């Protein structure tokens, strides 16, 4: 009997000990799960410390998609997810591959070197089109050849060779034509050659080049409205009229043949001191939205993804590269332009900022692109990077 009581007591103590152990294990697992959930529910915390300076709306997060992409400028995304990136001060074109589709690049391939400011890139039917200063070239079947020193064909080589505002953004429009801007070869001037200060377009085979829009001083970014298919573009205002004049412009061109004022009129209402006497501002198309003065507004896209909150749908995100000669630097940010149902701009406000710290910039956004998952990619030619901006409720 004494033996039975001793055995019973020992068994009961062991049972209590195991119960306590299991309870502790369950508590630990619950705590670990809670910590994991708390981390996932805080998407605004950047993964990389260098991005902690970037301010975004609540729920948004910015990460590096790719680093060490020297002078990353314009971007084009293939249906399979390969990101092609042009450069301006470099002579290279890159292909960036996210093999496992985890939102971070796994490989950066240099597909071309020795080019002259190959700023613009565009894709059509598997071919990569690249804009240099005076010509458009094409790399056929680029994804099959991008690792093998691909050869290019010259599509069109009759654009001016001026390097001043000579770098180009290019994109294919809904009409299947390639749109190519030709900047003014000066701060402000009136050239005899009508192709200057325009946006042109041509067929994919290089034929049929024509002027689509006039009076465009220097556009380095355009896109098309997802519903109306109208062309929207940024335009950089002239310099040497002071810190606050004129503002950059966001313009809309619903048809061919419109004139947007340069060199006679700036931002729809400021007569040029030299050329303004020749024509009046009311003769020209006014901007949809005046942007910041000298902010160097470049790439823009309508947000067409499903990741961001509903209020972002079909609204415009603009990359502002940043001023170069303003006494107080301005720009170095992403801006959001909100439109109403009639296509009128109703607000212009920061979306992402912090690349400018005081008077010193550590990054300069250039172009934006919407990914299939709804995230936004942003190129930066100063920090040599591609960022990924995502949202999680």
Automatic annotation (TrEMBL):
Q: Record keywords: Signal included?
A: yes
Spans annotated as Disordered? 29-48
Keyword list (alphabetical) reads: Signal
Annotated DUF7133 domain ranges read 48-386
- In terms of superkingdom, the source organism counts as Bacteria
Which Pfam families does the annotation name? DUF7133
Signal peptide positions (record): 1-25
Biased segments, Polar residues type? 34-43
Q: Which InterPro entries match?
A: 6-blade_b-propeller_TolB-like, DUF7133, Quinoprot_gluc/sorb_DH_b-prop
Name the record gives this protein: Sorbosone dehydrogenase family protein
């Amino acid at each position: 009997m004494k033996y039975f009581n001793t055995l019973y007591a020992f068994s009961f103590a062991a049972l209590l000990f195991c119960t306590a152990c299991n309870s502790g294990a369950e508590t630990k697992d619950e705590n670990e799960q809670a910590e994991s959930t708390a981390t996932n529910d805080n998407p605004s915390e950047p993964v990389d410390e260098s991005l902690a300076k970037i301010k975004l709306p609540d729920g948004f997060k910015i990460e590096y998609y790719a680093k060490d992409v020297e002078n990353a400028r314009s971007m084009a995304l293939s249906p399979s997810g390969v990101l092609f990136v042009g450069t301006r001060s470099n002579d290279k074109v890159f292909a960036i591959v996210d093999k496992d589709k985890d939102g971070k690049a796994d490989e950066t391939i240099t597909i071309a070197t020795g080019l002259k400011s190959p700023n613009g890139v565009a894709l059509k039917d598997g071919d990569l089109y690249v804009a240099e200063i005076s010509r458009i070239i094409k790399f056929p079947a680029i994804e099959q050849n991008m690792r093998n020193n691909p050869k290019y064909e010259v599509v069109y080589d009759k654009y001016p060779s001026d390097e001043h505002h000579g770098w180009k953004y290019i994109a294919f429009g809904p009409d299947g034509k390639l749109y190519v801007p030709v900047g003014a070869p000066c701060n402000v001037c009136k050239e005899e050659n009508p192709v200057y200060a325009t946006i042109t377009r041509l067929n994919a085979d290089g034929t049929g080049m024509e002027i689509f829009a006039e009076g465009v001083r220097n556009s380095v970014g355009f896109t098309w409205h997802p519903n109306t298919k109208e062309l929207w573009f940024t335009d950089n205002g002239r310099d040497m009229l002071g810190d606050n004049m004129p503002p950059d412009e966001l313009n809309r061109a619903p048809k061919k043949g419109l004139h947007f004022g340069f060199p006679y009129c700036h931002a729809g209402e400021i007569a040029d001191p030299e050329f303004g006497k020749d024509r009046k501002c009311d003769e020209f198309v006014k901007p949809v939205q005046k942007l910041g003065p000298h902010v160097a507004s470049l790439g823009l896209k309508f947000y067409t993804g499903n990741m961001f909150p509903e209020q972002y749908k079909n609204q415009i995100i603009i990359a502002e590269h940043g001023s170069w000669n303003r006494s107080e630097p301005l720009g170095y940010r992403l801006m959001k332009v909100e439109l109403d149902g009639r296509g009128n701009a109703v607000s212009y406000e920061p979306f992402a900022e912090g690349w400018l710290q005081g008077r010193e910039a550590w990054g300069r956004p250039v172009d934006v692109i919407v990914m299939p998952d709804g995230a936004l990619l942003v190129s930066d030619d100063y920090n040599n990077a591609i960022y990924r901006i995502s949202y999680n409720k």
